[in-house]
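RECORD CONTENTS
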Amino acid sequence: MKRLFFLFGIFFIGLLLIAILYQNILLYFISNSIYGFPSFGKWLLVVTSMGIVVNGFGLAYYYHKGYNQPLLLGALLALLEICQGIILYLIVNNNAFAQLGSYFLFITGFKLIAGLLYGFSLVLSKTRKVIYLKIMGILILIIVGIALSIFSLVLMYPALEKNETIEFISLGLSFAGLLTPVPLALLFYHESKWSKKNDEIKANPDLYYALAGLAVVLLLIFAGKIGTQAYWKTHITPLSRKLAVPFEKRVYTNKNGDKLNYRLLTPYKITPSMAYPLVVSLHGGAGWGTDNFKQIEGSLFARMFSKIENRKKYPAYIHVPQAPPGSSWGNLPNHTTIDSLVFESINALEKEFKIDKKRIYVVGHSLGGYGAWHFIETAPDLFAAAIPVAGEGNLSKASALVNTHIWAFHGANDKNVPVSGSRDMIAAIKKEGGHPKYHESPNAGHGWGIIDEEPGLLDWLFEQTK
């Protein structure tokens, strides 16, 4: 095998390690919210493709040396990693965990088992005589063994998924996993020293250079994109600051010490003798955070209500809570639900201000749309009306919503939240005897414009009472 093969093998291993290290650092600082970045799907394709190239170098080496067991198990492991990458890409790009989550978990479990077998093959087959491969096998057995144990525990006890210790160990394993390809890189370096420069070329060197150049360019492009998105995820933009100005910055703390960041917009002019409606405006994924700013920019209903003409025409208290990264308002799998904190904060506001308890509303888009459905399912007697946009409810709770005023919206071409999420809920409520309103925009996607076609929306909302 030519020296060039080993040198480029080392190059691609190093490049992959840099990419995964970069991704892990982002995960450490911004948690799972990285999966919601617009460019993360493409980044995932780049990293997965680089992993395929690195696996190709390893498998080619095994084939050349006649290491049949690591070759077969390594090929199986590489195939499972490709399948896992494809499924994760589809989940991230289409917000399809509900549809594909079980497949992802199955492939992940199978991959971990295959990883153990691969580690054993490196330790027990004739590759054990190659110290670098034996060390790699031992590292794989330790890291994959711990990962498989945690994976099995979480499957048996799903509540552990959000356990801080489990999350810390999982992230630590991601960093530790960076050690596993290092022995292979050292082996390639050792082999390159013994390879003669005049060996016969068995692969076109231009292909190596082309792949290397393409990998570097793509890595830099998408690393820059997700890095920029991560920066704005952890920093408050000038726009977020500006939009939050009319809203008072508040924190609700319950008797257990749990805290909820929220912003409150008061009526433009308050008449002491009057009771005013309360609107709970739930932000979408763009509002996730702990800064108590971004939820206004991420809650387009809040932005609508804060317009001076709407404040004058529809005097009301606008309550805009902020969900920490990885949490949700409800109805979203694999996310911690913080609905009870919001309900408690509503009770606190009712004690502090003169609020019309017959006119409490909940509205939300996307993540907030899921939450709007969940809030009226969980507390149907609390809310007089709801406007869930591009969300999805729990069909089994349809009977509880018969007497709630609902006007749902969805885009027929929504690629993030399937339109069936609204269609099926509306159909289920009607079947139970309810009369919800529903507007479906035939040419719209997941964007906010789907409610622009209904100029009387706010008139309808503030007319509703229990």
